[in-house]
DNA sequence: AATTCTGTTGATCAATTGATCTTTTAATCC
DNA sequence: GGATTAAAAGATCAATTGATCAACAGAATT
């Protein structure tokens, strides 16, 4: 029932037994499972249940993380790290490409990253808990993504109403809310989020009378 | 320090001592404080800390609620009940008033209700916990508010792109996201949310080429 | 094959937590 | 003013929880 009698216990790609992993690998495995676990049940999830999911003793966790908070910190980092690739500021500012295309390119890629249950929920849990990483992330997002979007919009806006930072937050929020509905509230998702993203962007650009070719 | 020696301990409007309240009043007081408490620390907040805030013994809570879950259920109800006044469907459908005015009226009133820390956070906590009240609320919102908005928009839209339910969710999400930023992520809020709401609505209507007077 | 090394287990601790129950005491009734 | 009622306190239970530590066992080394 448990596992075929494989004399060598430490292989079997994603099997169950494999005891005695090298530390780096075990640590990574713990963090991977912890991300899914805490994303599902919240940061108050119990170490014993996490250990059960890992097929491992609860005490083993404390060989790799001094405290539960340390483990959660590792979960944060695993989830937050690399979520915003560093070349987006310049790609968003590349005026050889129409702004609409830049925005669609960004939000298509970005939404593929964040419309993901683990990210979305851990981001929300950590936000509610007031985690500093959350604040830093949002500040970074504002500085590095939304502010350039505002600058580009402002450069192209033709109407008499100038775009503001709040306009960009509104665009952003409307898009992110798709993921919130799906993963936080577990409501049915739109079939083609890309289409909704494109529409949101069109709405945004049209408001400032920015033509498609600019 | 604690309280002037008021021989009758049970008055003093919002003072500290007043022991021995009538049950209905005590129950209400517990729920009121519990709403603020759980909104702040999450639904895993401990009964002992809640009791301390009430200036009451922990065991007293269980004289009014059989279990902690019962208390949380009471918190849900207190927070959810009456959040959507029942006359909005017709007010949103009153074509004697320009759609823009109807939308602004609704979202001004609605945002005043939901841009509130307790509501926003408990809604999010309960959403993450998968509470059924949360699902019911969102379904209700969709049926009773967003669907009429869609119908009204569709009746007035002049362009060749027809509005969809996702467009309405996008409008809604963009507005709600203001509150999420403020109360979940604790970011600085826009000074005049009403202005941002009006702008979001303008964006929405303009996309479907709906004039201000319609 | 024996030895060493270390990843992992199992037992256990102390603090915490939801919940129960007896006792106390403030308010009401006669 | 003393008796009665029930709201609240206080003590306590059993289960849970994060964390510790000695003992075990799988793999590498010699």
Automatic annotation (TrEMBL), chains A, B:
One of its GO terms (molecular function) is transcription cis-regulatory region binding. Pfam families: TetR_N (PF00440). Residues 46-65 bind DNA. Signal peptide: none annotated. SUPFAM superfamilies: Homeodomain-like. InterPro entries: Homeodomain-like_sf, HTH-type_TetR-like_transc_reg, HTH_TetR. Gene3D superfamilies: Tetracycline Repressor, domain 2. This is DNA-binding transcriptional regulator, AcrR family. It comes from Roseivivax halotolerans.
């Amino acid at each position: 029932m448990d596992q075929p009698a494989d004399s060598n216990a430490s292989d079997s790609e994603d099997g169950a037994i494999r005891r005695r992993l090298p530390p780096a690998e075990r640590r990574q495995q713990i963090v991977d499972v912890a991300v899914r676990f805490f994303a599902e049940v919240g940061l108050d999830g119990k170490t014993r249940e996490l250990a059960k999911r890992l097929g491992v003793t609860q005490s083993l966790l404390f060989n790799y993380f001094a405290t539960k908070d340390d483990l959660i910190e590792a979960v944060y980092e695993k989830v937050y790290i690399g979520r915003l690739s560093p070349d987006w500021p310049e790609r968003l500012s590349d005026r050889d490409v129409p702004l609409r295309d830049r925005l669609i390119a960004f939000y298509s890629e970005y939404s593929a990253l964040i419309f993901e249950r683990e990210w979305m929920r851990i981001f929300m849990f950590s936000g509610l808990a007031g985690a500093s990483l959350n604040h830093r992330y949002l500040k970074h997002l504002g500085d590095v993504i939304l502010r350039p979007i505002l600058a580009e919009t402002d450069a192209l806006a033709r109407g008499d109403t100038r775009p503001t930072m709040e306009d960009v937050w509104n665009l952003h929020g409307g898009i992110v809310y798709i993921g919130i509905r799906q993963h936080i509230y577990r409501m049915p998702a739109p079939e083609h989020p890309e289409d909704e993203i494109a529409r949101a962007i069109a709405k945004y650009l049209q408001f400032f009378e920015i033509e498609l070719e600019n």
